[in-house]
Amino acid sequence: MAKRNRKNRRGPTKRAASWLKTRLEPLSRVRISPARFYGAYKRLRRLLPAQPLYLMQAFPMLAALGAAMWVSAVAWNNPSLRNRYEQVGALALSEGNYETARVCYRRLVADDVASQRYRYGLAVTLQNLDQRAHAAALLRSLAPDDDSGYAAAHALVAQNILRAAAPGDTDAMQRAEAHLLRCLRDEPDNADAHLLMGRICMATERPERAEQHWRRAASGSPVAALELASLLNGRGQRDAALPFARSAAEALGRRVAAHPNQRDARLQYADALNLIGDRGRAEQVLHDGVVLQPAGPFKSALALLQYQRATTEGLGQAIAARWLRQAIEVLKTKKNLTTDDHFVLGNAYRALGQPAEAVPHLATVAEQRPEIRSELARVYRAAGDEEGARRVAQAAADDYEARLAQDTTTLKWRLLAADASSALGDHEHAVAMLESEWKKSPAPLLANALARTYTNWWDDVIKTAQTAEQRRGRLTLLRSALTYSPWDAVAIERLLELRRTSKDLGPDVAALLNEMLARGEATAAAHFMIGTDAILRGSDEEARLHLRAARDLEPRSALIANNLAWAEMRASPPDMTRALKAIDDALKMDPGNPRYRETRGQVLVTMERWENAIPDLEAALVAMRGQPQLHKALAEAYRHVGQDALAAQHQKLAETAPPGSQNENAN
How far apart are CA 414 and CA 394, in angstroms? Predict the structure, then answer.
């Protein structure tokens, strides 16, 4: 009986020993904070009887535990260990290793729950692990809605508000702006806060304020530098935009190289490359994204880039059509189309002359973006649906006229109302609305809108004019477009096309351009059009004369420089030094344009600099396949460097090119 009692008395001790063994074993590997020591002691105390005798039996184990805890506490209070946890946590967070970051920040918060920095790091980690409820609770304590808190937390709360808000939600933008202002009060140079403030300012039509915020953030945020470059480029300030775009491209390129699966960084990198003119590399970056993440956003971005290349690079109709078809094919492989996808598809079909296919896509876009209703009406009309065109245009006109009556100070409603009137065919009313505002306050947006209205008016006249005399009398519409916007691409294209293809109006266009020169109206543009037309007619001396004059008047135009290079190369005698300088200048302004790369390749072939010519011609070939003059130049270059097999292939392609695929480089 006594033996059994002794055995029972040893039971608690054995249990305590077993418990201690399991706890002591990992002590050599894990650092334990003082707070955890007390918790471990309480658990052990509950397992042991209250009698002092039994407690003394466990004393050696308790002593070992106490010594281990003491060593751990001393080590944890060592700043170098805490700093190590901070460093590992921050690095893991930056690399997207959120599980490791969570372990580090939880350890830091357990030791110092009052530290805002540690709690913020844990909140960011939990949010990325989709533990949003816990993250939101931490952020509320760090960044209350009605008081100042931790600056970085205010910026993150603002970002979350904007991310969850519907487009145009002014209440959400106001709440986000309040958080950002609290952040900037404590951290005036917080790049993330300035980036978001710039976006809010753009959404609320305060571009000047947006520019100020993005300039403050550009040195610390490549995304802010990119958005600033986009803003400046959209205003036509390309020279000012390029340094910011290049800086963004370099930083984002490094980020993508280190983290290839970061979606936003890859998309932003492609945007930056597009801005600096390196569209070929931008396309490759997006192609790589499609391979890495087939279900990601890269197909949409790739299709949009291809659409932009077709409509902005001036590669000629055949090449532009190929890019448009590629954009359509990319989007056909997507299962769920976004509004942007429908926008690209609708405009691509429209540019290809397939308005019936464009209508359903643009109608889908108009449900989310009612400002495109006027363009939708024009597509309906092109598809032969006059009733649909008038219904959409009338609804848009009524809506915008009502908004304009309530708010006469916002230029947006006047521009949209005028465009809707033009879509209804009431061009005179549209011009009157815009010109009345122009007389009060000339602005680039008004100038562009007036030019677009006059070119739309011309397009309608061409369809309805019965005789050449009627069309001839309306040439002044294109002249008016150029008066307001001398480099309006549509007006220039219309005049050059008439000069080249219209037997009855060609001479009148030439007379109109000469009259514009004599009166000093759109002088640089007039010289450019006369010079370009002269190239196409083979009048090389006349072309050189006018394009040199245009270059002197407008030295920042890459298009003029490109066409001048052709004129200098083809004149008699040719001035190859001037030609090379002109095309080099064009490529400085638009480095990735394949059209300009081909021009420089042709110049170098003419100079018999065969090895230098090949890289430019090959770069152009990616975008301009099927151009006989390009294949002919490559054949000649390869022949002179001893690559006869390649030369023969290019010669064959030059000779078998389909009819009508002539080079359209100078236009």
Answer: 15
Cα separation, 311 vs 344, in Å, equals 11
In the chain, DSSP finds a helix count (H) and a strand count (E) of 37, 0
Question: What percent of the residues of the chain are helix, what percent strand, and what percent coil, each to the nearest 5?
Answer: 80, 0, 20
> In this structure, are residues 561 and 589 in contact, taking their beta carbons and an 8 Å threshold?
yes
Q: Tokens standing for 471?
A: 């069309």
Tens of pLDDT along 419-440?
999 999 999 999 999 999 999 9
- Pair 595, 620: CB distance under 8 Å: yes
pLDDT digits (tens, 9 = 90+) for 457-479: 999 888 777 777 877 888 899 99
- 116, 171, 360, 475, 503 from 478: Cα distances, Å: 64, 44, 31, 6, 18
Q: How far is CA 32 from CA 19, 24, 68, in A?
A: 17, 11, 9
What's the CA gap between 324 and 329, in Å, rounded? 9
- Convert the pLDDT of each residue in 15-58 to its tens digit: 555 544 454 444 434 444 444 544 554 554 554 444 444 445 55
Please state, in angstroms and rounded to a whole number, the distance separating the CA atoms of residues 268 and 191.
Answer: 17
**Residue 321: exposed, middle, or buried by beta-carbon count in 10 A (0-12, 13-18, 19+)?**
middle
Q: Which residues of 10-49 are buried (b: 16+ CB within 10 A; e: fewer)?
A: eebbeebeebbeebeeebeeebbbeebbeebeeebeeebe
With CA atoms as reference, report the closest residue to 47 among 79, 23, 77, 19. 19
Condensed to tens digits (0 to 9), the pLDDT of residues 149-158 reads 999 999 999 9
What single-letter DSSP state applies at residue 371? G
CB 352 within 8 A of CB 318: no
Whether 183 and 152 have beta carbons less than 8 Å apart is answered as yes
- Position 110 scores a pLDDT of 83
> What residues contact 431, with CB distance under 8 A and at least 6 apart?
418, 450, 453, 454, 457
Task: Give residue 290's identity as a one-letter amino acid code.
Answer: V
Q: CA geometry: angle at 547 spanning 541 and 551, to 5°?
A: 145
Closest to 128 (Cα-Cα) out of 152, 154, 161, 94: 94
